Amino acid sequence: MSTKPHHLAIIMDGNRRWARQRGLSTVMGHKKGADVLKDVARYAHEQEVRWLTAFAFSFENWSRPKIEIDGLLGLLRGFLENDVDELNKQNVKLRVIGNRSRFSSKLIDLIEWAERSTSGNTGLNLTLALDYGGRQEITEAVKILVSEVESGILTVGDIKDDVVKSRMSSVALPDIDLLVRTGGEQRISNFMLWDMSYAELYFTPVLWPDFSQTDFQQALEDFSARDRRFGGDTVVDIQNRVTSLADKRRSS
After folding, report:
1. Which end of the chain is more exposed for a tag (fewer CB within 10 A), N or C?
2. Does 59 fall in a domain?
3. DSSP symbol at 212
């Protein structure tokens, strides 16, 4: 079994606290956090982590002050407008999961353009979760399945785990191996509930803008010391079953 996570997910917590501690605006904290994410993507590539998913904007974040939301969306637009060339140079494939309907048409166009522009890359798979909520994602998948059953496309008996997953916005993503949350909080905050069924959880008090290469390496070392049995008795047998299931999903 690999001692490195195949899929690493991150809840980037602490941007606002970092900014307040320094007398800076909240948007400056998010800007610093965006720069750190770029660094972490590089660390992940160097450590041969194949999938990196970052919780960038949650379903619940819409309740924050408008000036903060506008700042966050402005940073996202800047990233999509200015950094796609660098993603292509680094062979990074970008995906966005979540609900796009509340974004402006210009921002939606930018997201779709960035995804198309990097779709042929074969290196790190970088996913941004935007206007994302785990419960909301599962609920939307259920709505699709109910509609398909009512229209006769599916029967109730057809609905298996892989069928549910295929109706989710995160359909292309494999199960999460390691979740890292910065900022000292110890909860998963409605993030990728389906895909974290057997994820290892790593919490650190380090605020996200201070998250360094050393902190990243410590998280990987902690993961490598975990004994992952996936609810079973024999690690190798369970891992073989998980790999077989993943292969079936990719081939279907």
Report:
1. C
2. yes
3. -
